[in-house]
Amino acid sequence: MKFNTFGKLSLASVLVSAALAANAGISVENEQGLFTIGGDVEYDLNFVDKDRNNQGTQDFSQSGRILVQIAAEREVANDHYLRVQVQPLLKSSGDVDLDDAFFAIGRQADWELKIGRFEGFDMFPVGQDTMLDFAADAEPYRMKDARGRGDYGQVSYAKSIDSLYFELGSLFKQNDGADKNAVFVRPVVAFQATDNLRFAAALEANLTADKADAANDYLGYGATVNYSVQDFSLDLSYAYRDFDVTGTKEDTSIGAVIQYKRFGLGHIYSQADTGSKEKMNTTWASYEIANVMDVQDFSIYLGSYFSKVDNAADDQDVGVRVRFKYFF
Q: In the chain, how long is the greatest CA-to-CA distance?
């Protein structure tokens, strides 16, 4: 895959367009452009065993949602386009949520300006994460705090030049007890070294950090490498976050993910240093049973995870899941 193709794929808008063309239940094209509506169903049967302070709790549950994807794209002169997309989530709990909701303008395989609610470049891929959670509810730092889908909106600009892809994202964010006007930036640079090898590096920082915004006052760095050949894919990722110049709080994470055909396996080692180091190891695996009942868009996933924190209580989680997934 030459980078001109990679550049096209790097723009999330082109990925969305291709997916809609392949899976949409309804597609209408006229002089105004292309309108599509589709989505997917995802329902899970879950079992989780959590050990906190040497006391275990077990939970069996059913969860899931229906995602409805509505998109419209209009092509204009010189390969330029305008695009709108919205993805409501109808959850089995009765709640209604939202994944993407954005407006974008750009030029195919060149640049894109996007505003709304969406996700930026993935700096810490987790592959086929059918079931992935973390012991003691201590989620490791994975260069995703300013990636997107925040409640206060975001703006990003992406540009592709030969083998190079650049993305500058900004996210408006608020943590509990923090300033309401926190503004994060997240520049990303990706380089397609060969047909099979890609490198990416990024950082994220709060431009408005001050004493009133200590919860958002940090600088994060990250890098990721992807190697893909035929049915095999390997992702290696690193993320580091320093909460202030004195280094009184630091988070480090290292991840490795393998995908071979329909089988996925991943591991994350993370360490939080707040004067004493707290280490966590998390492993997950997943297998896809595809084309169930000879239906191409219907799969059943089998997934599990194990996560343990090395602390005084040795908190740990074990979980298994059966997922039913259907694209319509």
A: 65
